[in-house]
Design a protein that fits this description.
The radius of gyration is 26 Å and the shape is globular. It has 18 helices and 38 strands. It has a domain of 277 residues: Distorted Sandwich (Beta-galactosidase, Chain A, domain 5), CATH 2.70.98. The protein is 26% helix and 22% strand.
Length: 776
């Protein structure tokens, strides 16, 4: 069904830009949740509300082993031929996975209890499907299960998921609830689970899982639009005879229940006169919390769908964009993906389960989780400060602070979901998220608590070699893996602490952490021009190959080519060590122009979207194209951005070159399309690139609007000839956050030849610590 449309879209992208499109009256029409569902993007196509706790989506394969499941990290892979069922929790674009909770599969005829072989039709309860029968829109998903003819529709609210199943006429309707199923087949994944049937027909249950986040607990409550005729609760770990059940309303007030490690529920509804609706609410607290969430938010399918579509319309409408249709589809889908996380984790009464596995209550904010901070501190969270500022203030920062207060280690989250810490990736990157919000003027949280949390995280010696980092000024590779990367990422986070402390008048803290932020120099080998791993005795580790990915575990998901550029707080200082602007530019060009045809990076996950040694499919490269501006050559940034956008993004299922990482890949595209990017969150500056939209209008609080306009934008006009801000020439290659929040117009004039003078002078370049006015 989609092939002709996608081919047309690609042709439009490759050809000259058509006549300007109008900003869409309904942005939902330009969102395609199937973008990124191919093997690299790791997005899911199902239904979710903005930042919703529930992500109700089809799973095409959950039976693969952990090391073989990379393409199924979100449960759904576009190229799979069967659907195993519909589960209620998914990550959008993560590089690893868990979740896939409470799998529901409708059936007719003899009920099958196992999913079966995906390569053998009819071997289990999984069913074949065709993309011709699929519909995916924000808050809505539908598909026809080919083997049974059942039409499945899904929608979701913040804490509820609603299923609607139309069974073929004359066929008996059954549901199978499989509590064994999870994304990735972790050994011993189900620690304990339970099912309870209440006299009013409500089914509740729970499960505790061992996976990426150990000991994760999730509870649910489920109601049906038709009465049960019969049921069975089955523990597949033991032979339990089937027992009938007297349906509610026929004199029984007894509760049916089952506890075990491999539970399934068979629910029989007989022949129905119309579709069966199933309302499901989740809770991280208890079954009572799930029932309360269901009471508060549960409703008929069409009601919930309209409510969620309105919420998406409002959220997506914060940014009105005018561009050719393929670009609009890329951009509105990207905006959609950036608004899926951090997801709600507290119940309607404010209760939530924290990192200590205890129940707490949020006051005056909604507790959120799903923080992929190593990825999202770069552009996703800065974008949210513009398109969802109220959530940044009241929810995100307060949730980070609360997580630290409940943490057994007394530090901020690293990679957290469902309130649980995974210890995945490196750095203490909750720090720049908080600092960036504070320095942009956001309040609504306790800054003293925030700063204390930031300092505690930066001083927690047992974490990732921090003890040695504080003593030696770098992380030694003979004591800690990925030491080169950790050294430079810690230094940036330290700078963010220093910046916020300085703004708060905490000179003692500012002095200490601004000094620590220069530690990146201790990992830089001036003789070779590379960031390298050092040993505890001070020597650089040998042998050394800057092109070796994950060489000796010196770097995190990358090599020296990517990580030698990670000094966002002081790019000018780095360029001086490289020998000046000309040498920095030459090295940047060498990175993009590197011939990788003889290199094999297939052993390294997340290494995708290569342009030379620039790896757009992974985050350490994301700021690099903008670094030419720090050397006085922003015109080179403009050319590189065209190269990246046209090769790394398409409005197709395989349209993302790497996993979206909870919105980071999408946020990069959105910022870049608007013409500026936050290379250094916490600096209150955006580096100016070039726009990919003819016009965009960002709606801000207090009735203010910030407009981006691009005159003469076309495929041939790659370069920026001139820039105006509110009608006056903008000669610097950066724009301040405050200038955006005040509202106004940023106007680009595009041309075919580069303007080599614009942004060239030293006084026009973006922030660097070593060239900025003294920070006391």
């Amino acid at each position: 069904m989609r092939a002709p449309l996608l081919i047309c879209a690609l042709l439009l992208t490759a050809s000259a830009w058509p006549v300007a499109a109008q900003a869409p009256a309904d942005p939902l029409a330009f969102v395609d949740p199937l973008i990124g569902t191919g093997p690299e993007g790791h997005t899911f196509p199902g239904a979710s509300a903005p930042f919703g706790m529930v992500q109700l989506s089809p799973d095409t394969d959950t039976t693969c082993q952990v090391r073989d499941c990379y393409a199924h990290a979100a449960g759904y892979s576009y190229h799979d031929p069967t659907i195993q069922g519909f589960s209620h929790t998914h990550f959008s674009g993560a590089g690893h996975s868990d979740l896939g909770d409470i799998l529901v599969m409708p059936q007719t005829g003899a009920v099958r209890l196992d999913p079966g072989d995906p390569k053998q039709a009819g071997s289990g309860y999984r069913q074949r499907f065709s993309h011709d029968s699929e519909t995916a829109r924000p808050g809505y998903y539908a598909v026809t299960l080919a083997d049974s003819g059942i039409r499945a529709e899904l929608t979701a609210g913040e804490r509820v998921g609603i299923h609607r199943y139309a069974f073929p006429a004359g066929r008996e309707a059954h549901l199978l609830i499989d509590l064994r199923s999870s994304l990735y087949d972790y050994p011993g994944k189900i620690l304990w689970s339970g099912l309870h049937l209440h006299p009013d027909g409500t089914l509740t249950g729970f499960r505790e899982t061992r996976g990426w986040a150990a000991g994760r607990k999730l509870f649910f409550a489920m109601r049906f639009s038709a009465p049960l005729k019969d049921h069975a609760f089955i523990d597949r770990d033991q032979a339990v005879p089937y027992k009938g059940f007297q349906a509610p309303g026929r004199g029984s007030d007894a509760l049916a229940e089952k506890l075990g490690k491999a539970l399934e529920a068979r629910l029989d509804f007989g022949r129905l006169d119309g579709p069966l609706e199933v309302q499901v609410a989740l809770s991280g607290v208890d079954e009572g919390g799930a029932i309360a969430n269901l009471d508060a938010e549960g409703a008929g399918f069409d009601t919930v769908r309209r409510r969620t579509e309105d919420a998406w319309r409002q959220a997506l409408g914060r940014l009105e964009m005018d561009a050719p249709e393929p670009m609009l589809r890329n951009l509105y889908t990207a905006l959609y993906h950036t608004l899926l996380a951090p997801s709600i984790w507290s119940d309607v009464d404010g209760r939530y389960r924290g990192p200590d596995d205890q129940v707490h209550a949020a006051k005056d904010f909604t507790f959120r989780s799903t923080f992929s901070l190593w990825d999202t501190f770069r552009a996703e969270h800065p974008l949210l400060t513009l398109v969802q500022p109220e959530r940044t203030t009241s929810d995100v920062v307060n949730s980070l602070i609360a997580s630290r207060e409940h943490s057994p280690h007394g530090i901020l989250p690293v990679w957290q979901f469902a309130g649980r810490e995974t210890w995945t990736m490196i750095g203490y990157h909750a720090v720049p998220v908080i600092a960036d919000a504070y320095l942009k003027g956001f309040r609504g949280f306790d800054p003293d608590k925030a700063l204390a949390a930031m300092v505690a995280s930066a001083d927690y010696a047992p974490y990732g070699g921090l003890g040695d980092y504080m003593k030696l000024g770098y992380v030694p590779i003979d004591r800690e893996p990925e030491a080169a990367s950790k050294t430079v990422e810690y230094a940036y986070d330290d700078w963010a602490i220093g910046r916020m402390a300085q703004a708060m008048g905490r000179g003692d803290v500012a002095k200490r952490f601004l000094a620590r932020s220069s530690s990146w120099r201790n990992g830089f080998d001036v003789g070779s021009g590379w960031l390298r791993a050092r040993k505890a005795d001070g020597s650089f580790r040998t042998p050394f190959d800057p092109a070796a990915i994950n060489y000796g575990s010196d770097y995190t998901e990358g090599n020296a080519w990517q990580y030698s550029w990670f000094v966002p707080q002081d790019q000018a200082g780095l360029f001086r060590l490289l020998g000046g602007d000309a040498r920095a530019i030459a090295k940047l060009d060498a990175m993009f122009d590197y011939d990788v045809s003889k290199l094999d990076y297939s052993h390294a996950e997340d290494i995708a979207g290569l342009i030379g040694q620039y790896i757009h499919g992974n985050e350490p490269s994301h700021h690099v194209a903008y670094l030419y501006a720090y050397a006085g050559a922003p015109w080179r940034t403009q050319a590189r951005l065209k190269q990246i956008v046209e090769s790394q993004y398409k409005p197709t299922p395989d349209g993302l070159s790497g996993n979206d990482d909870l919105g980071q890949m999408s946020a990069w595209l959105l910022f870049t399309a608007l013409g500026f990017y936050p290379v250094t969150p916490g600096s209150n500056q955006y580096v100016v690139g070039r726009p990919f939209v003819r016009r965009a209008v960002l709606t801000l609080p207090h009735g203010k609007r910030f407009t981006v306009e691009a005159e003469n934008l076309s495929a041939a006009n790659v370069y920026v000839g001139a820039v105006e801000l509110n009608g006056r020439p903008l000669r610097r290659s950066w724009i301040a956050d405050g200038e955006i929040r005040e509202g106004g117009t940023l106007r680009f004039t595009m041309q075919a030849k580069p303007n080599r003078d614009w942004g060239r002078g030293a006084g026009t370049r973006p922030y660097s610590l070593s060239t900025a006015p003294a920070e006391r």
